[in-house]
Amino acid sequence: MPHPHHDSSLRHRLGRTLRTPLGVTALTACLLVALVAVLGPVLLGDRAARIDTDAINQGSSAAHLLGTDQLGRDIAARVVVATRPTLRLTLLAAVIGVGGGLLLGVAPAVVGRRPGRLIPAVVGVLVAFPGLLFLLFLATVFGVGTTGAVFAVGLAMVPPMARLVQNLTASVAGSDYVAAARILGVGRFRMVVRHLLPNIAEPSVLFATQATGGILVAFSGLSFLGLGVQPPQYDWGRLLNEQLSRVFVNPAAALAPGAAVVLTGLMFGLVGEVLAQAGGRRAPRTAEPAPPPQPSPTTGEAAVAGDDGALVRARGLRVTFPGGRQAVRGISLDIHAGEAVGLVGESGSGKSLSALALADLVPHPGRVSADALRFDGADLRADPRLGTGLAMVFQDPMASLNPALRVGRQLAEVAEVHLGASRARAAARAVDRLGAVRIAAPERRARQRPHEYSGGMRQRAVIAMGLMGRPRLIIADEPTTALDTVVQKQVLGLLAEVREESGAALLLISHDLAVVAQVCERVLVMYAGLIVEDLPVGELLGGAAHPYTRALVGTAPTMAADPGKELATIPGRPPEPGEAGAGCPFAPRCDRARNRCQEDTPELTDLGPGRRVACWYPAGPAATTSRTVEATS
């Protein structure tokens, strides 16, 4: 697991979260409760224990804010003093629950096969057992008193904690790095400490923190029932029990311990929410200085120029990850209304991240910055919301559809949320859109769930979801990769029909040049986070100028290729984000590279009408050959 870097570390994210209103509230509450727990017994311990037979069962007064109990002791002082034992016993029970849950949770991943099956089965049975009955059963087993209540509440927390840890551990245990560690002979204890626990720490801590609030309520409940803390000791639950009979005479005395339990439980919930925000992508983002833009002769003027009819205009678009690693390094592109643009390149070249940056969908902790970023005349840097003007079609439609919901309901939600349509009108539009993407019997199909669809139908349904609004731009990220050739051709034809009917522009991301040539009018070639060539699709095979583009074309198999000849490959590998230094990033793999290519980074410059290339020594027009683009479909 990669270690956190700089601003993405948990410590920095936690610091930012604590500066939000939620964080300030949680921190203030924690400090207040801690001060009461530490100083309460010191300052009010004698007052809470002092018996005054002349002041028995008095109501609220200046001398006794909440009145007195049946022995004349000050109830307010007793509530304050009870904070320390209540928190101490609650945290002790939480330690038992968290510790036991972790042990049972990670055990199936490190013990033998039979115990590894038995432990989850036992945990499943315990989780299925009603929690309150299980708690009362344990309290009866351990007996009345503080010790028994601590063990009962703590052990009652073990099954849900163990189930969570088991699920988290199972997902991590199947990772490649865990398999590699096993092959290298890493011991079981080291496997747990080094590879499993660090990867499940954040959700486990979040669950434990929020569950602690439930432990507080459960422990107070046992004391209220007389099964927990016994006289002369007392906690909030015991105080509530003592004053319940006087709730109509002196309600403040009875409600104060209950209010303390509720407010402290809410404090634990706030702490859990702060940890959740600090540990996940909801962490608040602070403004960062943008990395220096890549040199470009048009960057300065484009940042202030008009759109010139462009639907999408990006200048100096960058996606940066922790450690200063740039996956997209200052690209500039225009997409006009109704235009179909292909974005091609090897895996890791930055194609998908560029599209996600346009849609403000780059996953945390990625950071998007740009000198100019406009969509349909609006500045996306000031307001990244695109509404229904953008439709996304992802590579895996099953990941885009909720398997638990009916397809029609998922499509209808788009119209309800973004268009303000009623439920009935949204459902009708969902059926209409399913029919528009050539799904037979759309009324019946709308009532089905995604697993009842074939792969091609799911991809059509995702396209229909994008058409629920009024998209001006459709971004299709490898939409045909997981489909067979027949369905692939159908989906590509559908995208063409959708463009013709709606007038939407299309940004098609693919590594398949045949697919791009079949659908698009213009091609952008990316390498190492940069656009290295921009050319009409008709020039892709015979007129590419950048050595990388020509190499990509050379590796694409065709029906005319000699079956006995090995496929061409590009030597070497693309640089990882952050590896590219000075010079042309393709130079280490280029047979045309010279000294200048190693020292100076070429800019994307005009090479002719509708053509740009970033190369110091571009190739001339290739000889005309009989080779044609043949779609693998």
CATH topology of the domain at 83-233: MetI-like fold
Shape: elongated
Low-confidence regions = 1-8, 281-306, 622-633
Q: What would you call the structural class?
A: alpha/beta
Number of helices: 22
* Quaternary assembly: single chain
* Overall residue-averaged pLDDT value: 82
Major beta-sheet overview: 8 strands, mixed
Cα-atom radius of gyration = 32 Å
Helix content: 40-55%
How far apart lie the N and C ends? 39 Å
Instruction: Record the strand order, biggest sheet.
Output: 7-8-9-3-10-11-13-12
* DSSP summary, beta strand count: 13
As a percent range, the share of strand residues is: 5-15%
CATH H-tier superfamily of the domain at 83-233:
MetI-like
CATH architecture of the domain at 83-233: Orthogonal Bundle
CATH first level of the domain at 83-233:
Mainly Alpha
Supply database-style keywords.
49% helix, 22 helices, eight-stranded mixed beta sheet, MetI-like fold, disordered N terminus, 633 residues, five-stranded antiparallel beta sheet, alpha/beta
Describe the structure.
- With 633 residues, this protein is an alpha/beta fold.
- It has a domain at 83-233: MetI-like (MetI-like fold, Orthogonal Bundle).
- It is built from 22 helices and 13 strands.
- Strands 7-8-9-3-10-11-13-12 form an 8-stranded mixed β-sheet, with helices on both faces.
- The longest helix is centred in the N-terminal third of the chain and has 37 residues, at 188-224.
- It is elongated and about 105 Å long.
- Residues 1-8, 281-306 and 622-633 have low confidence and may be disordered.
